[in-house]
Write a structure and sequence with these properties.
8-stranded antiparallel barrel; about 325 residues; about 5% helix; mainly beta; single chain; AttH-like fold
């Protein structure tokens, strides 16, 4: 990545891969995550795509979970398909997949129409950005290895409206949530990944944050005190956005299986401001892919304001496997 890439503003063309050269490497990645929630029902969900344009394939899925069921086989709904053929006119946020997922880019960096048509669940959602996404470019995180996930990365909080239809029941959606986009080489299976987490929260247009952190010792046991170093992110305070320059993430309490109960963030930004946020976890989905992630709906207090968001808590798969097998009484 050049210095210009690190410092330039994210522009509408970044929401498409048509405007950017890429190598022929099959592991070139263009991925995007959208989240949504129904807090009053303790429901959380994701709409997630990993495009591999040089392979002409998209790996993608949707999930919905509440406070009952923490696995993909016992949550409200989970579907992921790795081998969606890519149509010739596919672009980052304009696609229709064989597994029933669809996305239409209505306004770059601002408005997205998300759809899913399955036998048991359907989604009809409008995702709208609340502010211009900052260029995060993993700027403070070179020592933590986040740069292996791509050379360009931006994140944004916004509003989500529409409906979930689950086994014939229609559930209205009217919330604030998160999206991101990463672009760059993402090679084969990741090994020995740093633990840590991603957390976001929204209290109002004047108060919100999204931040990623890394655990100093990636091999630390699950039961060890988790004090994570802030890698990158941003927060909005008094209506003004600033990129995060320091701080820490502390998991105050965990369940026996390792999932977080409460998380505290102490954040500092480029304007010399500080933010404190404390969460209470409301549900959990144990999600396995790049690492073992415990993906949780979170109820936040952000600088004294009530809000909603997520706690995503990460462990390298070998660390969590060892912990959970010991809990099961396994000899090895």
């Amino acid at each position: 990545m050049t210095t210009a890439d690190r410092t330039r503003e994210i522009v509408p063309e970044d929401d498409s891969w048509a405007h950017h050269p890429r190598p022929e490497d099959p592991f070139w990645n263009e991925s995007g995550l959208f989240t949504f929630m129904v807090p009053e029902l303790d429901i959380n969900g994701y709409f997630y795509v990993w495009h591999r344009p040089n392979m002409k394939l998209t790996s993608a899925g949707v999930a919905l979970w509440d406070a009952v069921g923490t696995e993909t086989h016992n949550c409200l709904f989970s579907e992921w398909y790795h081998f969606n053929p890519m149509a010739p006119d596919t672009d980052m946020f304009n696609f229709r997949l064989g597994n029933g997922m669809s996305c239409e880019l209505l306004e770059p960096l601002k408005r997205y129409k998300l759809g899913y048509a399955g036998d048991e669940m359907q989604l009809d959602l409008l995702w709208e950005g609340a502010y211009h996404p900052p260029n995060l470019h993993y700027s403070n995180s070179d020592a933590d290895g986040f740069e292996v996930w791509g050379s360009v990365h931006y994140e944004q909080l916004g509003s989500v409206t529409g409906t979930i239809t689950l086994r014939g029941e229609t559930i209205p959606v009217d919330c604030h949530a998160f999206r991101d986009h990463s672009r760059g080489l993402r090679p084969g299976p990741a090994r020995n990944q740093s633990g840590g987490g991603f957390d976001y929260g929204w209290a109002s247009e004047r108060t919100s944050f999204a931040v990623t952190s890394a655990r100093p010792d990636p091999t630390a046991p699950v039961t060890a005190s988790s004090v994570d170093r802030i890698g990158y992110g941003h927060f909005v305070q008094d209506g003004k956005l600033g990129q995060i320059t320091g701080g820490r993430r502390v998991v105050l309490e965990r369940e026996p299986d390792g999932r977080p109960r409460r998380v505290e963030l102490l954040l500092e930004d480029e304007h010399g401001r500080e933010m404190r946020a404390v969460s209470r976890v409301r549900n959990c989905l144990k999600w396995h892919s790049l690492w073992h992630m415990q993906w949780c709906l979170a109820e936040w207090e952000i600088d004294g304001e009530h809000g909603w968001g997520e706690n995503q808590d990460w462990f390298d798969i070998n660390v969590i496997r060892r912990h959970q097998r010991e809990n099961l009484g396994a000899a090895r």
